[in-house]
Every structure is written in structure tokens, then in C-alpha cells.
Write a structure and sequence with these properties.
- This protein is mainly β.
- The chain has a single domain, classed as Porin (Beta Barrel).
- The chain is about 5% helix and about 50% strand.
- The protein is built from two helices and 18 strands.
- The protein has an 18-stranded antiparallel beta barrel.
- It starts with about 30 loop residues before the first helix and ends with a strand.
């Protein structure tokens, strides 16, 4: 049977783990803040001199040249190396969710290296939502307004990333409801990242802090002109959830010869829930990569890590073996993919054996004509459940996005996605019965009034068909939005 904790999820029979449980005789929750401080201090000590910033909050760049130019991977090879928040499904992201008001490389930011850079953005949305708490029953409808400013400051080549530089992004989101003011909230996304290049060695350091609350956590409603994709929310926890997420990454790339290079890094992630089951993960990865041709890069390597889980859940160790490739088939088609297998062990062998699962990341882009783009994203990874005691889940998702420009100013977009979450016990006597099948559909139309001002409308339908009735829901949203970039 599955047990739940906390009261932030619409589940029956919520039970808080007892401190003196026989299953585990140690601390109930990981010491998140202490390990976070140590991780930041250690990472900062590894990065000397000037820094080079990367596109903060960016989803996977899916650039085959990125493996040789930048120390970080073009996408997350393992769930722990660059994870999403637990249960968060984003149509575009395979490793990092995008802030709705973030500043991206395509925005009005000067690319002149070694110069101080800054940019501002303001997104405003008015939305009608017929199920603001994502409930199966007792659905509540309301209007809400989202105010989402964003600021970027940096020094150096923060757009082209060919020179050393440093960049800081901050994007808060303020939600104000018409009739349910208790659901008002503010979220904060902070990202600091930099790079330093030697003749053969490149180093990078990134620190991300996400302070999230409510049912609409880090919802990505970037305009269609910027490549609109699907929404993100905490599918595992459901309903209104408060979680703070801290991610520290240190990566490197070292050119061995003109065609071969090493890449790798270390990361630390903490998912600190106020009332649910928190977790922490530290991991490292190493890959040997080969530039087979200017259009094709292949790599082979692996990763390993340790996963602390709060409550009465056993801690976990994991190892992965992966192969990956980046292939620019033509100027119109790019493909990046990785695949492998993960082996996961559990503290004191409480599960009675290892859990073996395939893992993959996939990204493809097709631009047949000027103003037309098609994107494909997918991944599979293993995550800790924040609501079910002694349970993990395997998350498999796929998303397709279409965008078409008309008359140079009108952008029509359509994104659709599907995710399956298959739960399994991490203790031998726990039998999991939960399985989720979630999908969304989101059409949108945006108009570029000036080079810094866009307006648009969108519709969002999302539905979760779960084996647990109380975690099933469907939701409709109708919204208007505008975006200003300075």
C-alpha cells in the first residue's frame, strides 16, 4: 500500500512519518541548507578568474558544437546531473525550467564582449482558470493576474558566449486571484552562471535558486514569438505546494586532440518541501567525446551519485552508463540524443535488490522554411516522490511544438505533450499502485507590435488520468498576455 504525507496534495489519509520509525533510525529530513551552503562554497572555490555567462534558465540548447565549446552537456544525461523539480513536467525543458519572464539570447541584449550588459522584461497575463487547485472534485474556478518582471545583468559576451563573462538573472512571478485571495503568491527564480576558458580547458559554474509555491509553479508562458511550449507544475505533489529548490553545478571540458575531448562535472540539488518529503542529490559525470565530422559528435561515459531522502525513506545510490550524439543533419535539421541504463541501489538493501531502468534524453529541431519551426523533446528519468512514503517513480515524457510566422508580425503556435509517471516501492514490503498519464494541449497566437512589445492570446487544456482517483483532474485556461522588453 502507499502512504502519503503532508496536506498540500489532495489525497486521502495523509500520514506524517513518525520520528522513531523502525524502518529508519536517523534524521527525518536532509539538512538541506547546510549542504547547500557547502556545495556553493566548494563550487566557487573551483572557478578562478573571469567568467563567461550562459543563457540563464535556458532549456537544452541542442547544439552539437556545444560539447566542444562549453563544458556543460547540451542536455541532462541523467536525472540527477541536471534534474527538474520533482514531478515537474515542462514541454520544452529537459533539465531546467524556464522562468516566464526570463531574458534570453534572442532578446535585446548587446553581444559585445567585455562590456557591462543589462536588460529588463515585463510579462503581464490575465487568465480564467476553471480548476485553480487541479482537483478531481470540488473544482474551483477563478480569474487571476500574473505579473512577471525579469532582469538580466552581466559583464562580457553574455549572448554569444565566446568570451569570458558572468551573468545574473532574476525573475519573480506574482499571482493575484480575484475571489480566492488565500492563493495569492509570489515565486522567485534566481540564476547565476559563468564560464572561464583556458587554451584547452573550459570551466563553468552555475547556481540556481527557485522559491516556488501554489498550483501554478514556474508555468512557462513565454510568447509564441519566443518559442512557446507547454506548462510546468508539480504533478507528483499536485494541488498547492511550497518547495525551495537549490541547484549547484560545476562543469568542465578539456580538448585532448583536435577531434577528441573530455567533458564532465559535478552537481548538487536540494528539493526542500515545507510539509512534504524533501530530498537531496549529489552526482558526478564524465564523458569521452569524439568529433567524427563537423556535423556529428558522439560520446560515451557515465555518472554516479548519492540520493538522500527524508522521512522514513531509504537513501539511494545510482550509476548510469550512457551514449550520446549531436548531429546537425543540415542547416534545417538538428538532433541531439542520449540513451543508457541506470542501476539504483537502496539503503540496507531494503528493496531486496537493485532497480534497473532505461534513461534517455531527446531533442530535435526542424526549420523547413523561414518563420517555421518544429521541435521535439523527450526524456525518461527516476525521481523521488514527495507525497508517497518509500516510493519513487519513473517519469517518461514527450512534447511536440509547432510555430509559424505570418506577415512578419503574427506568430501562431501549438504545443502538445504527454507524460507517464509509474510509481514503484523503495522498500520491499511497499506495493505501489499509483500511475499517472498526463497530457496537455496549448494553441496560442501572438502579435509583434514593435520590436520590444508583443500581445497575444492562448488556450490551455491539461488532464491527468491517474490510477488514484483523487490525483486525477482536468483543467481549462483562457488567457491574454503582453510582453515588454527594454
Amino acid at each position: 500500500m502507499g502512504l502519503t504525507v503532508g496536506n498540500a496534495s489532495p489525497m486521502a489519509h495523509c500520514i506524517t512519518p513518525r520520528k522513531n520509525s523502525a524502518c529508519k533510525r536517523r534524521r527525518q529530513q536532509p539538512d538541506v541548507r547546510l549542504r547547500f551552503i557547502l556545495a556553493v562554497a566548494s563550487a566557487c572555490a573551483l572557478l578562478p578568474g573571469k567568467l563567461q555567462a550562459e543563457n540563464a534558465y535556458s532549456s537544452s540548447r541542442f547544439d552539437s558544437t556545444a560539447w566542444s565549446r562549453y563544458p556543460e552537456k547540451p542536455f541532462a544525461i541523467s536525472a540527477e546531473a541536471n534534474p527538474l523539480p520533482p514531478g515537474e513536467f515542462n514541454g520544452e525543458n529537459t533539465g531546467v525550467e524556464r522562468a516566464s519572464a526570463e531574458i534570453n539570447a534572442g532578446d535585446e541584449v548587446s553581444s559585445i564582449p567585455r562590456r557591462f550588459q543589462y536588460a529588463f522584461r515585463l510579462n503581464l497575463r490575465a487568465v480564467y482558470d476553471d480548476n485553480i487547485y487541479l482537483r478531481h472534485t470540488d473544482r474551483v474556478a477563478d480569474y487571476y493576474f500574473a505579473i512577471e518582471p525579469g532582469v538580466t545583468i552581466g559583464f562580457g559576451d553574455i549572448v554569444g558566449r565566446d568570451q569570458n563573462s558572468i551573468r545574473l538573472d532574476y525573475a519573480p512571478s506574482i499571482f493575484i486571484y480575484g475571489d480566492n485571495s488565500d492563493s495569492n503568491g509570489i515565486q522567485h527564480l534566481i540564476h547565476l552562471e559563468g564560464h572561464y576558458h583556458f587554451s584547452r580547458l573550459a570551466l563553468s559554474l552555475s547556481q540556481r535558486v527557485q522559491l516556488l509555491e501554489g498550483a501554478n509553479q514556474s508555468v512557462n508562458f513565454g510568447t509564441t514569438t519566443g518559442g512557446n511550449t507547454g506548462p510546468a507544475f508539480n504533478l507528483d505533489a499536485g494541488g498547492e505546494t511550497q518547495v525551495n529548490i537549490y541547484t549547484t553545478q560545476v562543469n568542465f571540458s578539456y580538448d585532448l586532440t583536435g577531434k577528441t575531448f573530455l567533458s564532465g562535472g559535478a552537481s548538487y540539488t536540494a528539493n526542500d518541501y515545507e510539509e512534504l518529503i524533501s530530498n537531496e542529490t549529489v552526482s558526478a559525470n564524465l564523458y569521452l567525446n569524439y568529433n567524427y565530422s563537423p556535423k556529428l559528435v558522439v560520446g560515451l561515459g557515465g555518472s554516479a551519485g548519492y540520493n538522500w531522502v527524508g522521512g522514513t525513506n531509504p537513501d539511494q545510490m545510482f550509476e548510469q552508463i550512457n551514449a550520446r550524439l549531436g548531429y546537425q543533419i543540415s542547416g534545417k535539421v538538428t538532433l541531439d540524443a542520449s540513451g543508457g541504463v541506470e542501476f539504483r541501489q537502496f539503503e540496507d538493501n531494503l528493496r531486496g535488490g537493485s532497480y534497473v531502468s532505461p534513461v534517455y534524453e531527446l531533442g530535435a529541431t526542424y526549420m523547413p522554411f523561414d518563420g517555421t519551426s518544429v521541435t521535439l523533446r523527450g526524456s525518461r528519468r527516476t525521481m523521488n516522490s514527495a507525497v508517497l512514503l518509500a516510493q519513487n517513480y519513473a517519469s517518461t515524457n514527450i512534447t511536440v511544438g509547432l510555430r509559424q510566422r505570418f506577415f512578419q508580425r503574427v506568430y501562431v503556435g501549438l504545443s502538445a505533450g504527454y507524460e507517464n509517471s509509474d510509481y514503484f516501492g523503495t522498500v520491499e514490503f511497499v506495493e505501489s499502485t499509483r500511475s499517472d498519464n498526463y497530457f496537455f494541449l496549448q494553441p496560442a497566437v501572438d502579435l509583434t507590435l514593435t520590436r520590444f512589445w508583443t500581445v497575444g492570446v492562448y488556450y490551455l487544456y491539461r488532464q491527468n488520468d491517474s490510477s488514484t482517483e483523487l490525483t486525477s483532474f482536468y483543467d481549462n485556461q483562457f488567457g491574454v498576455r503582453t510582453s515588454l522588453t527594454f
